[in-house]
Amino acid sequence: MLNLKLISKILGSLLWIESSLLFVCLLVSLIYTSADFLPFIWSILITAGAGTIFRLLGLHADNLLGRRDAYFVVTVSWILFSIFGTLPFMISGYIDSFTDAFFEAMSGFTTTGATIIDFPEHLPKGLLFWRSLTQWIGGLGIVFFTIAILPSMVGGSVKVFAAEATGPIKSKLHPRLSTSAKWIWMVYLILTVACILSYKFCGMGWFDAFNYSMTSTATGGFSTESGSIMTFHSPAEEYVSALFCFLSGVNFTLLYASVVGLNIKKLLVNSEFRFYTIMVLLFTAFIAFELVYKNHYDIEHAFRSSVFQVVSFITTTGLFSDDAAKWPHVTWVVLAACMFFGGCSGSTSGGIKSIRGVMMLKVVRNEFRQILHPNAVLPMKIDGVNIPQSNRVTLLGFMGLYLILTLFCAFTMIAFGIDNTNAITITLSSLGNVGPTLGMEIGPTMSWAQLPAFAKWICSFLMLVGRLELFTVLVLFTPAFWKEN
């Protein structure tokens, strides 16, 4: 059965870390003398108190974490982080419904970026910073963050990493996972700082630069203004945002190995990176043509708007510089494809990941060859590495489950009166951790506040399932998981 003592110890440690993050937001609140400092004090006390209770329950726990424990602790830690993440919103009174507060917190930690807040500019500075910080921490993973800073707090960290990491192929920089985590977080931190300075250079204030850089590099999409990047009317800021979102959609391990090793060729010949880049270029060119031909944009404006939205959708960031609801409907199909595929594995982006797109193409190619040569044994290689048969079976299981969840949840929303386009794209957006949706009732520049409560709970569940790549969460609902042996 589950090692409940060790699980309690880990959850307690994680809640202490969350209280530390809330303390950072308290400092921001005090610096800007905003009205939310008392709610943050109460949030810190409640979260730290709950963490202490969990730690006491986990006293004298051993450090033997099994695979079953790892899946359970990762899923529960994301739910707990979101539950306690609601405290600043609810205690301050800016969100009075637990459903809405949980939706906002889950959207933050999973870097989905869908919001129920129509005018974020009306929030005090501490709450705005908390929204952005939830996305920045959730970008590479809550438990992965803990492994990087306090490896001793998470027993069986390799199993936990496997339960939380994105993509079908896991890679490490160093034999010690905690060392790999530190280097990957260093890349993430450097990207964030470079993004802050770039935004500031383009004319943003320091507060906006910090917030937008955290949500850009986390590919999350929360904004300090209801108009997102479009509020600033700055082409330079749009290009900066598109660049850093694109970089954050690249596999961080590959990015580190290419830049630190001064071997850019390693990046350029990588199959997943090429697939990801080709999609961005082709989709950008198509949408730019449509905007020039049908919406009469000038060439630079068309290119800027199209590359920004394509990168925002494919990296599942959700920032916007234009209203895609006013674009030709054929561009919606392209943006929906971006939602589906997402960026690279091992990045902060969502979707099914580009590596699975590469694997699917190779599986299809092998099937055509098998028809012509029935007795041939056809290996499937990606960047010179043979992909075992078990990974191919997992790929088909993942794609089938992804499709079933999409159809079931979209059908449920349509049955309860949500229009077809919105229901399908809301489901894709939640499951892919994208943020914006396409449709007339809830457009790509609008909040999700008008969704009924049941739909928000479905979306919150889909965000969690999508961020932890389906199996980590859904395995908890199988009878085999709870059997003693």
Which class do the helix and strand fractions yield? Answer: mainly alpha
- If you average the pLDDT, what whole number results? 88
Helix-strand sequence:
HHHHHHHHHHHHHHHHHEEHHHHH
Low-confidence stretches: none
Counted beta strands: 2
The level of helicity is 55-70%
Output the strand order for the largest sheet.
1-2
**Number of helical runs?**
22
- Rg measurement, Å: 22 Å
Instruction: Please tell me what the overall shape is.
Output: globular
Strand content: under 5%
| Euclidean distance between termini CA atoms | 7 Å
Largest sheet: 2 strands, antiparallel
Main location: membrane
Transmembrane segments: 12-32, 38-58, 70-95, 136-162, 183-207, 239-261, 273-293, 330-352, 395-418, 454-482
Keywords: Cell inner membrane, Cell membrane, Ion transport, Membrane, Metal-binding, Potassium, Potassium transport, Transmembrane, Transmembrane helix, Transport
Pfam family, one: TrkH
What descriptors fit this protein?
485 residues; mainly alpha; 22 helices; globular; transport; potassium
